[in-house]
Design goal:
The protein is of the alpha+beta class. Helix content is about 20%, strand content about 30%. The longest helix is centred in the middle third of the chain and has 13 residues. The chain is globular and about 80 Å long. The chain starts with a helix and ends with a strand. The mean pLDDT is about 85.
């Protein structure tokens, strides 16, 4: 149901929370609830939770002898009793054909301790087996239920093995990781490292609300913001912790790192700039001579006047440009070497700009560069715009669910763009040859980053990992 509705969720509570802010109207039909395996109270929680959403109309089917029915009484449903004569046309009833009833195909029960078995078996049967299990089966149960939404999709065993490996914690049976790696050998992607909720060595950095690649003094690192706004850095090569910034930035929605290592964090209060602990700060006479506002601080002041009461929702930078997106769907860009100029502004989206990516492209053989911005919106569109020119008319990509994160990089393989969507899919686009591939890690990506090597770093609420294409 979460996949059909374009969200990521694996519990009733998380599904209702994901649908609540979506004002689009929909009808959800839940047939044959009496045939469901499980506690009737769990089905009742699902029905009552969905029925409580004003934009949802819910149609459910349950027998009046089923214990689920009394659980639904608090929802005060409008009941249509199909046993009543006005809903029954006996003339249309068909007799049971001669002979025995059709036998349904029953898949063999998977071996829940065997990675090869669970990756190749019927995923619904595996899920039911793990939900009913009392042991963790070496860590496979926790990993499967963590990304189960993606594992239920029609895909080869190699892809299931890769997904399980990305969320296999360090408490799992140490034999599982190499077994899953061998099973995933035919996948398009290879896992370089992952850190999962509960990991101790190295420690998990916490839920990722936003991430960015380091630069300057933090080159070779990844800057992460957790759910409390604590800003940490981990090694890009192996995710081992390398530091922590001094000041938390609560409810961080976007991160970017300038070429000198300055970390910019965006939240509801605006942009907050911090220097990492490794940075060399000006001192003595040099500090006195440069006591005025920095180009970034001047650019932020220009943005504040450009927003005109709207809220900044997205942030991206290059060495020469600072860009912001707002809740009204507009993107604003200003040069950092000319911060006293007026910001260039274009409205590119219906609804909020959820994410921005900025990339500097070389102009011919000169050292000069041009800035190209990619914006992803709540309208599901990703658009391209070079400040000083008209935006590209056709979206780079479009899907019927919001964009959650973007990253672009100019690499030796050309211009690469990663797009994360609210339903958990990640698009990896090679823009110069027009090819794209989709990755479904099963967890909503709150941050993505394309490295100089073309690798993909993904941050979610329960795991952060790095993948490389084979």
């Amino acid at each position: 149901m979460s996949s059909q509705l374009g969200v990521t969720a694996r519990t009733t509570e998380s599904l209702v929370a994901a649908l609540k802010p979506d004002s689009r109207r929909t009808v959800i039909v839940l047939p044959d609830l009496h045939a469901g395996i499980g506690d009737p109270a769990d089905f009742a929680e699902l029905v009552i939770g969905l029925a409580g959403l004003s934009q949802v109309r819910l149609v459910t089917e349950v027998r009046n002898t089923n214990p689920l029915l009394p659980e639904l009484q608090p929802a005060a449903p409008a009941v249509m009793d199909l046993d009543e004569t006005q809903w029954t046309d006996l003339a249309q009833a068909l007799p049971e054909p001669d002979g025995a009833r059709h036998q349904e195909h029953v898949s063999p029960a998977p071996e829940l301790d065997d990675p090869a078995s669970v990756c190749s078996a019927d995923p619904v049967g595996v899920t039911a087996g793990y939900e009913a299990a009392t042991s963790d089966h070496g860590g496979l149960r926790t990993a499967w239920l963590r990304v189960g939404q993606a594992l239920l999709q029609d895909q080869p065993p190699t892809e299931r093995a890769l997904l399980l490996r990305t969320v296999l914690g360090d408490a799992a049976d140490p034999r599982l990781a190499p077994q899953l790696a061998q099973l995933a050998a035919g996948s398009e992607w290879d896992l370089l490292w992952s850190r999962v909720s509960g990991d101790i060595t190295p420690p998990w950095p916490g839920p990722v609300s936003a991430l960015a690649l380091g630069a300057g003094s933090s080159e070779g690192q990844v800057v992460l913001s957790d759910h409390l706004g604590v800003l940490r850095t981990v090694d890009l090569a192996n995710a081992s912790p390398t530091g922590r910034l001094a000041e938390p930035v609560g409810e961080t929605t976007a991160l970017s790192v300038l070429s000198d290592g300055t970390v910019l964090a965006l939240n509801y209060d605006g942009v907050h700039a911090q220097m990492p602990y490794q940075a060399v700060r000006a001192s003595g006479l040099n500090a006195l001579l440069n006591d005025g506002p920095t180009p970034v601080e001047q650019a932020i002041e220009v943005f504040n006047s450009s927003l005109r009461g709207s809220t900044a929702t997205a942030l991206a930078t290059t060495a020469e440009c600072l860009a912001m997106g707002d809740a009204d769907g507009s993107v604003h860009a200003i040069g950092l070497h000319t911060p006293d100029s007026t910001a260039a502004t274009r409205r590119l989206h219906r609804g909020s700009v959820n994410s921005l990516a900025a990339v500097a492209l070389p102009l011919g053989d000169n050292t000069a560069t041009a800035v190209l911005l990619y914006s992803g919106g709540a309208d599901g569109c990703v658009r391209a715009w070079a400040p000083g020119h008209e935006p590209q008319e056709t979206p780079v990509a479009e899907r019927p669910c919001p964009v959650t994160a973007l990253s672009a990089a100019h690499t030796t393989d050309g211009l690469l763009l990663a797009i994360a969507w609210a339903d958990g899919l990640i698009g990896y686009h090679r823009l110069e040859n027009g090819t794209a591939s989709l990755l479904g890690p099963g967890l909503r990506a709150n941050g993505v980053a394309v490295t100089a090597d073309g690798d993909l770093v993904v941050g979610t609420n329960e795991a952060v990992f790095r993948l490389t294409q084979r």
